[in-house]
Structure formats: C-alpha cells, structure tokens
Amino acid sequence: MTSIHRPLHVACIMDGNGRWAGHRGLPRTAGHTEGEENLARLVRVAVTREIGWLTVFGFSTENWVRPRAEVRHILGLHEKLFGRVAELNELNVRIQWIGRPFDSPSARTPKYVQRAIRKAIADTAGNTGMVLTVAFDYGGRTELMSAVRAARAAGETITPESVNAHLYLPDVPPVDVLVRTSGEQRVSNFLLWQSAGSKIHFTDTAWPDFDAADLDAAIALVR
Ligand code: IPE
Ligand code: IPE
Ligand code: MG
C-alpha cells in the first residue's frame, strides 16, 4: 500500500453531465450547468482536504465536434467558472488554465473566454492555497507533441526532464489520483504524461452528483 503524506494532486475527468440530465428528462445543457455548480461545490470541499492541486477536464480538443448550441453553452459556463474570482479569493485558491495556447493555429477558444481565463488567473495569482487547474481545449497528445517540439527547437536532448520542462504547466506535480466519473473507464487523452504513475478511481457517480464522500473515496487510494 502506498501512502502519500503531502498535499495531493487530484485530477478529475468530469464525465456524465449529459446522462445526468437525460435521466431527469432535462436537456444536456442543464447537466453541464449542474456540473459547473458541482465543481464550485467540490472546490469548497477540496480546500478542506490535503489537496494541493485539483485539475479538472472541462473541455477537450475532441469536444468541438459536439452540436454548436451545446458547445456555446459549455463556453458560457467556462466564462462563469473563471468569473468566480471572489469565491476563489475567499478560499485562497489560485486558478490556472491548461490547453492549446491561444496563439496556436489550431486553438479555438473564443476571445471572451480567453479574457475570462486571463482575468481569473491574474486576479487569483496572489493566492497561496490550493491550485485549481481547468483544462479547456486540452488534449494530452497535443501537449506532448508541443513539448517535444519545443525541447527540440531549444536544441535540448529529449529526456523526461526536458519534455517535462516544456509542458503547458511544468510546475504542476504528477497526478496522484485520477478520477473519472459516470462509469466510463477511459483516460480520454487527459494528462497522459502527468498521470503516468497515478492511481485511478473510477466511479459510477455522474459528475453533477460527485460529492465529498466520492472525493474521500478517491483520496483513500493514496492515504
Ligand atoms: C462531461 O459530460 C462534460 C464534457 C465532456 C464537456 P458529457 O457531456 O460527456 O456527458 P455524457 O458523457 O454525455 O453523459
Ligand atoms: C472527456 O469526456 C472530456 C471531458 C470530461 C471534458 P468525453 O465524454 O468527451 O469523453 P469520451 O469521448 O466519451 O471518451
Ligand atoms: Mg461524456
């Protein structure tokens, strides 16, 4: 049994919003709205546990093919999420974003979401508690390819250290526990490098219902 006694890095693939809504006869968008609310609730719980980094998968590079109205709704919810600066400051949480750089040719994050992201990062930069990283327009393979290219362009020998140094957020430590909700047992191109050695907690709970007890069950894998 491994037992880790330092602040943990917990990463969540927040899946099942659509099914959560479907089971209630609601549109998928209602599930995403509830999923965002639940993330805000979970952050409040996470800061009371020994979690130093919480990284969540909000939207993948593959998710752009979803119906336009659904994508638009999810974009709006990220604007809302990154707008929760007062709450984050109250909790001493620093927010970060991980994803395809806005200036990369394939990046698709619209300007208003970019602005919300930049503002939230700046307005919470002084916080010293938990680091909340939101993955938006993120894909693990794309991140790895760009890290290897950057290392090569800098004339570096490709080593684990040099690749790590060129990740989107090189200062985020490896993932200790990777969570995926809603019964799917896939990694779906999330944090491929960072979760190379992590424990994995699969749960049938849909993301909007993922609560403190579920989080504690995930943490129990490493404590
Ligand atoms: C996760 O919920 C949210 C995103 C991927 C943006 P889903 O929308 O994938 O929900 P299901 O898997 O269809 O239930
Ligand atoms: C993974 O969920 C991405 C996010 C949670 C943002 P999906 O529901 O998009 O994943 P797949 O395509 O079913 O694996
Ligand atoms: Mg899904």
Summary keywords:
single chain, 223 residues, alpha/beta, 8 helices, globular, binds 3-methylbut-3-enyl trihydrogen diphosphate, binds magnesium ion
The average pLDDT is: 97
Secondary structure tally: strands: 6
Give, in spatial order, the strands making up the sheet with the most strands. Answer: 3-4-2-1-5-6
* Distinct compounds present: 3-methylbut-3-enyl trihydrogen diphosphate, magnesium ion
User: Number of helix segments?
Assistant: 8
Order of helices and strands: EHHEHHEHEHHEEH
Morphology call: globular
Strand content: 15-25%
- Helical amount: 25-40%
Biggest β-sheet description: 6 strands, parallel
Q: C-alpha Rg, in Å?
A: 17 Å
What does this structure look like?
With 223 residues, the protein is α/β, with parallel strands linked by helices. The chain contains eight helices and six strands; from the N terminus they run E-H-H-E-H-H-E-H-E-H-H-E-E-H. It has helices spanning 17-23, 28-46, 68-82, 85-90, 111-123, 140-153, 160-165, 212-219; strands at 8-13, 51-60, 94-98, 131-138, 177-180, 199-202. Strands 3-4-2-1-5-6 form a six-stranded parallel sheet, with helices on both faces. Helix 5 links the parallel strand 3 and strand 4. Helix 1 (17-23) crosses helix 2 (28-46). It binds 3-methylbut-3-enyl trihydrogen diphosphate (2 copies) and magnesium ion. One 3-methylbut-3-enyl trihydrogen diphosphate (IPE) binds next to helix 1.
